[in-house]
Write a structure and sequence with these properties.
- Helices cover 43% and strands 23% of the residues.
- The chain has 165 residues and is of the alpha+beta class.
- A hairpin with a 2-residue loop joins strand 5 and strand 6.
- Helix 1 runs antiparallel to helix 2 (47-80).
- The mean pLDDT is 89.
């Protein structure tokens, strides 16, 4: 199984990559919005306005990436001081292995944000899910061996929780 401290490092690295990408996109969008070529020559030319909306959206994305990094850093700091005495229930900061009815396993890390982020370590692919997502809500407080169902695109999917770390 994937060591949790290595998982933390991988998630942090992917969050930093997302931040660098978001900063670059925000810079490009800002440069486009403020370029002299973007100035409207008539009331019907909206390129400059559209570019400014894009620049704003990209700056919001930068702020979200920064918040994700802060939230994960706080979570990882808190988790590093927690002993493993408690019963492992699905909650924030847990690594969960799910198996569907076809025997296919998937690994999920329950994080404070960045839902959908994927990291790979050796043969393991781990996706971050939040407790606000339908899957996160369905797994919340479940334990190893528990089963649950989830409606995905109108189809019922059944899962078993194989491990909770």
């Amino acid at each position: 199984m994937l060591p949790i401290n290595q998982l933390h490092h991988l998630i942090r690295r992917e969050l930093e990559k997302a931040l660098v990408s978001a900063i670059a996109a925000a810079k490009r969008a800002h440069e486009t919005a403020t370029d002299t070529e973007s100035i409207a020559k008539s009331k019907y030319e909206t390129f400059g306005l559209e570019a400014s909306y894009l620049a704003h959206g990209q700056s919001v994305r930068v702020a979200q990436c920064q918040a994700d990094i802060r939230d994960f850093d706080a979570l990882f700091t808190r988790l590093s001081g927690v002993s493993e005495v408690n019963v492992p229930k699905v909650s924030l900061g847990k690594l969960v292995e799910l198996m569907d009815t076809e025997g296919k396993s998937q690994y999920l890390f329950v994080g404070p944000g960045a839902g959908g982020l994927k990291v790979t370590w050796n043969k393991y692919s781990v996706m971050v899910v939040t407790l606000a997502s339908p899957l996160g809500r369905a797994m919340m407080n479940k334990e190893q061996g528990d089963e649950f169902s989830l409606l995905v695109a109108g189809n019922r999917r059944d899962y078993e929780i194989v491990t909770v770390n």
